[in-house]
Amino acid sequence: MSADHNQSRSLAHATEGGKAVGSGSLGEAIATLAGHPLLANSGIPLNLDWVRDVRVNTSAVERRAQSHVARRTVKKEWQAAWLLRAITCMDLTTLSGDDTEERVRRLCAKARQPIQQELEQKLGIQELGIKVAAVCVYHTFVETALHALEGTGVHVAAVSTGFPAGLSPLAERVAEIRRSVEAGAHEIDVVITRAHVFGGRWQALYDEIAAFKQACGSAHMKVILGTGDLLTLRNVARASVVAMMAGADFIKTSTGKEATNATLPVGFVMTRAIREYAQQTGMAVGFKPAGGIRTAKQSIDWLAMIKEELGPSWMRAEMFRFGASGLLGDIERQLEHHATGRYSAEYRHPMA
Hints:
Layout: H1 3-15, E1 31-33, E2 36-40, H2 48-52, H3 58-70, H4 76-88, E3 90-93, H5 101-112, H6 117-123, E4 134-137, H7 142-148, E5 155-159, H8 170-183, E6 187-191, H9 194-198, H10 202-216, E7 220-224, H11 233-245, E8 250-252, H12 264-281, E9 283-284, E10 286-288, H13 296-309, E11 322-324, H14 327-340
Helix pairs in contact: 1-4, 3-12, 4-13, 4-14, 8-10, 10-11, 11-12, 12-13
């Protein structure tokens, strides 16, 4: 058996390893935790005692994050396999003031074929059909993205609710969600009112997110907490719990527009909130770090955190996403190095 065949078989085995658990394999279950099947999140009534009891040992979380990145990482074909898994969990994103329909179409072309065909052949992974999970755009470009991605299975996500500040009137934010859903968006990324967190107005935050959830209908709702603006990890944990109680399908770190976006300490706090919620309710919530994740090494750090904190069933696009615009280019460069022993120039891997 050739070395190339061995490599492609290893990559296929490693990239398919997280697909055993899904909506079909355990009936209604979408994930498992400690061997227990978990249902999709339908929300629960606001439990203020639970929210008020939330505590975070900040120094312990920071030490955990530091030790996490200092560990020996995966190597060789297993590193390549983890990077391929990272690609399948990406929301390729363009959220700039100068976005155009042509830029969105180019991004969608990259979403359909995230790895150059020549590199796919060198890695022997053509049959895996690697593609990203979603393309994330402003409402204006939802229809453009839907047409460009038709028949691919790649979802279209729309940012909504006065993104990125979330300060427009509630009725306007809800109407914005409805327009994107009517346009055909599969997923809606909503922004919370951060002031509700600062003021401890948990009922107001819960009611706001529940209204967003109702407007989303069958579209999946990812709730952006704006963690860089929330000041403390305790605020992050409390906002995470309230968002899940209100029916979030995913909780997401950031808009990508804050001064500080996704960090590993925030990631540990949010994934542990997801774990506790699953243990208490039997329902699973996805996780999306966004903003500032630009290197292949960082993607592996985040995937390793998900595996350790929540388990392999979360290492799928249905339960975990990267919000990324520049990450894919570095992953392609690392994959090319794995296949050829050489790093290519960044300009050879444009996003859009």
